[in-house]
Amino acid sequence: MRRPGALVGVVLIVGLAGAILAVRSREGNPQFVIAQQSVQPVNASAVQDLLLTTSDPRPGHAGRARAVRCSAGSGGGLGNPWTCVVRYPRLPRIRFRVSVNADRSIDGAGSPEGARASGRLTVSGCCVQTQ
Questions:
Q1: Is there a contact between 56 and 63 (Cβ–Cβ < 8 Å)?
Q2: Residues 6+ apart with CB under 8 A from 29
Q3: 3-class DSSP state for residue 1?
Q4: What is the DSSP secondary-structure string of the chain?
Q5: pLDDT tens digit string along 12-52?
Q6: Which of 12, 84, 97, 121 is the most buried (most CB within 10 A)?
Q7: Where are the chain's structural domains?
């Protein structure tokens, strides 16, 4: 190569341009910021109401949830992760670890209390209501 300095210069210019674009893309989107500031916090009764609409996820079991007790894992707006104990028509109760997504849908996984689950029990639903 005749001009190694030119190659180094080109690489530096490309790197600098990439850095500038990366910094610009991290600037706040005003519509997103406004939407996030107006998000209503999720409370336990709203998560419980949604879980009451779920069916027993255990193979060979049927029926809707009869009772639910949830507690938030954090003080954030969505309260994730939630710990919820759900009672279906047949015991044992199922303890779920539930996450509320940004679109207010929920996803969770759990196992029966005091028993070993043969597989992973899941629950999902849409959508947690705001008060």
A1: yes
A2: none
A3: coil
A4: ---HHHHHHHHHHHHHHHHHHHHHHTS--HHHHHHHHTPPPP-HHHHHHHHTTPBP-STT---B--EEEEE-SSSSSS-PSEEEEEE-SSSSPEEEEEEE-TTS-EEEEEEETTS--SS-EEEEES-PPP-
A5: 898 888 877 777 766 666 555 555 555 678 999 999 999 99
A6: 84
A7: 4-37, 44-125
Tell me the three state secondary structure of residue 14. Answer: helix
Structure tokens at 26: 């991290």
The amino acid sitting at 30 is: P
Q: Residue 57 and residue 12: Cα distance in Å, rounded?
A: 57
Measured CA to CA, the distance from residue 63 to residue 57 in angstroms comes to 9
